[in-house]
Amino acid sequence: MPDLSRVMRERNIIFVTLALCLVFYLISPRFLSLDNMSAISRQIVPIGLIALGQFFVVVSGNIDLSMGMGSVLFAIVLGVFFGLTGGVALGIVAVIVCSLALGFFNGVLVAKLGLPAFIVTLSMLFSAQGLSGLIIPRGQQIFLMGDFFRFIGAETFLGLYWSFLFLLALFALAWVVYNHTSWGAAVIAVGNSEENARLAGVNVDRVKIGVFMVSGLCSGFAGIMLSSRMGFVQPGLDGNGLLLDGIAAIIIGGTLILGGRGTIGGAFWGLLFIGIINNALNLLNVEDVWHQVFKGAVILAALGANWLLWQSRQVEAH
Amino acid sequence: MTRRLDMHGIGKSFFATRALDNVDFTCIAGEVHALVGLNGAGKSTLMKILGGVYQRDEGEILIDGQTVEITAPADAGRHGIAMIHQELSLINELTVAANIFLGREIRRGRTPFLDKAGMARAVRAQLDRFGLSLDPHKPVRELNSGEKQIVEIIRALMSDAWLIVMDEPTSALSEEDKEMLFDFIRRMKAEGIAIIYISHHMPEIFSIAEQVTVMRDGRIVLSERTGETTEDAVIKSMTGAELDQFVKPHKQITGEVVLSVEDLSSPGKYEGVSLDVHAGEIVVLTGLRGCGAPDLAKAVFGLDPDYTGTVRYMGRTLTPGRGPAVAVRQGMGLVTENRDKNGILPPLSVRDNIALPFLEKSVTAGLIDGARVDGIVDKAIRDTSTKTASPAQEIRFLSGGNKQKICFSRWLDEDLKLLILLEPTRGIDVHAKADIYRIIEDLAERGVAILILSYEIDEVLMLGDRVLTLFEGRTVQDYSYPHFDKDRMLADMAGAGHAT
């Protein structure tokens, strides 16, 4: 079957991303200003967290559709605790516990009952959406103010946002776990062939539950980051847009949607690619309705050209 | 002490069928023991008992003189017995070393981090020990099938296997890889590993095995040192002394030439093959797995763009690789060897599976004529005596034999001129087999030219008006009914007389 990840393995994503930067720069020089770069770095944090969690789930041969609405729900959990206590510590503990629990629940249904991840996490998506609206009625919101949210949302260190540094640290951690622990190898093995992995002695169920707990936790973190940046929470946040951007990032970064293959580095470049498009279209004042159309067109043009180029090279190599 | 495996008086029945009857089998460390027999002779049942997949009804298994119980595949592993299957069980996306250590990785001290260098070193040490060179850091997907097989064996050896069972290991290998594998096997012998080698390939058996055992109808019929027997004796005992009597009526082939293949070659698959198939004639290609016959048949169906030579069909020369869509329009049909993968569409109904190739022809005014399709489907189900609850039944719930009949029934319309069948009775029961043979004979009667690939000698003899034996992509012999010679055909297939 056509294999996007092979295209991306050629490191073309780096050139495509840089070329995209050049194009946007030529249209609007402001694009490459320090201020804007730093804005991009902050905007991509929630998407990056979704992408990172989704990465492990997808490599294991599954998918977690509940990540986007899950992060909205967790943002609301944080907001409710903030509203009740005026502090954040308890709220963060609650988000971590809830997000791990959601992931565990997803994982158990997939691993132990053998239900397809698509079905399990799709119903979780709707449940999370419903719960969010139950906790805070539509049209209302909770404002988040205080040192913590300012720190996460706006403080910098050596010119870099703390939230972006947090994301970088998590990517680094993920790289180590994926490439240098037996768990990483087990995730790849399960994504390639559950049966063969099982025969080799891999505890397949535990790997599946594990990846969903990772994606759950990542959506919890994404909820915290999202709400801190916005300064308020409400159930109408576009969780599914976040989810799709996250999935797009890892696929653009060369992760095989069917599982079994992908790199953390590729996922990071895919994330930059998505982040740059989102930012540039805002910067260029593209009308909201056209924003998505252009995004689709850019992804299709950049990746399609890349794919065709790669194919013609394959033919020559024969 | 030399390690040894003894299987004593092994018996096994499946319902009324006696699959194994009082089988004795011994294997000694440092030797290769070749196990030979036709399909259904009981080889794989015996090996599945050894591997813990089946449970024996009678007899005992001893390792180094001690009785052992092998009731699950894990037991076999614990006793140092490893099965290397044709479908390899590696993870393509992981490296050689990661595959070998999957599930029991080496870590750096007490940290959770992998000791990749240490694992690579251990793998390299094993490879060196057997004179092999492979990069432990290479992803398995970049290896060829010979190298993959080696990785799988090394993995077994590194989990302390002393007895390796190899099931037709060379069937998918190039000449070069075969040499590499044989070298490896010789070194394993020198290191005191015992090997059970399932194969029909006579030159291979006589070049690497110390002992050869032949099974037929669930019994051991010959077990000798290879130095004390001959290829002929082995082949004779495979088929049995009594020659089957064929009652195939002699057919006068008078139809025109439908398919004419001349000097067809495709690199690495087949070479210089020529054959004619007349209307109403059944031509059978046979050989061992890897003999190139399926590729040849697929080339005729337009699936190989790279052959040289000519394929003439109904008097016209065909373009290589023109694709199945064109072939079907020209009146060809193909029943693939793997019906679950390339034959049926599992989630669809029986009706939709049968109707697929007819849909284009059943269109009136832009819409599919449902009544006409139903008619075709009902007739096809009747003609093939397919057992299905209704045409709306999902095909995946049918038995193997009934699925196969549906793969056939797709092609039963009047436009069919040439039908290509790859292993038409693979994995189906006796009754369904009889139905399939009847369908094939009926089609030939109707004047359809039929080209069959079969690996089962009795089927070859029963169906063929003409039989071509192939060995490593080349025609060995062309037989016309009634001048069939079962022993010579088997010898052709096994490459008897060829040096490896």
TrEMBL record, chain A:
Transmembrane regions listed in the UniProt entry: 12-32, 44-65, 72-105, 117-136, 157-178, 209-227, 239-258, 264-281, 293-310
Q: Which Pfam families does the protein's record reference?
A: BPD_transp_2 (PF02653)
Which keywords does UniProt give here? Cell inner membrane, Cell membrane, Membrane, Transmembrane, Transmembrane helix, Transport
InterPro entries reported in the protein's UniProt record: ABC_transp_permease
List the subcellular locations.
Cell membrane
Which molecular-function annotations from GO does this UniProt entry contain? transmembrane transporter activity
Q: What's the superkingdom here?
A: Bacteria
Instruction: Tell me what topology the record assigns in the membrane.
Output: Multi-pass membrane protein
GO CC entries: plasma membrane
PANTHER family on file: ABC TRANSPORTER PERMEASE PROTEIN YPHD-RELATED, ABC TRANSPORTER PERMEASE PROTEIN YPHD-RELATED-RELATED
The name this protein carries in UniProt is ABC transporter permease
Instruction: Give the organism the record lists.
Output: Pseudoponticoccus marisrubri
Automatic annotation (TrEMBL), chain B:
List, for all copies, the residue spans of the domain called ABC transporter: 5-242, 253-497
Q: Where in the cell is it found?
A: Cell membrane
> Could you give one GO CC term from the UniProt record?
plasma membrane
Q: How does it sit in the membrane?
A: Peripheral membrane protein
Q: Does the keyword Cell membrane apply?
A: yes
Read off the InterPro entries from this record: AAA+_ATPase, ABC_carbohydrate_import_ATPase, ABC_transporter-like_ATP-bd, ABC_transporter-like_CS, P-loop_NTPase
CDD domains attached to this UniProt entry: ABC_Carb_Monos_I (cd03216), ABC_Carb_Monos_II (cd03215)
One Pfam family here: ABC_tran
One annotated GO molecular function:
ATP binding
What keywords appear on the UniProt entry? ATP-binding, Cell membrane, Membrane, Nucleotide-binding, Repeat, Sugar transport, Translocase, Transport
Protein name, UniProt field: ABC transporter domain-containing protein
Q: Which organism is it from?
A: Pseudoponticoccus marisrubri
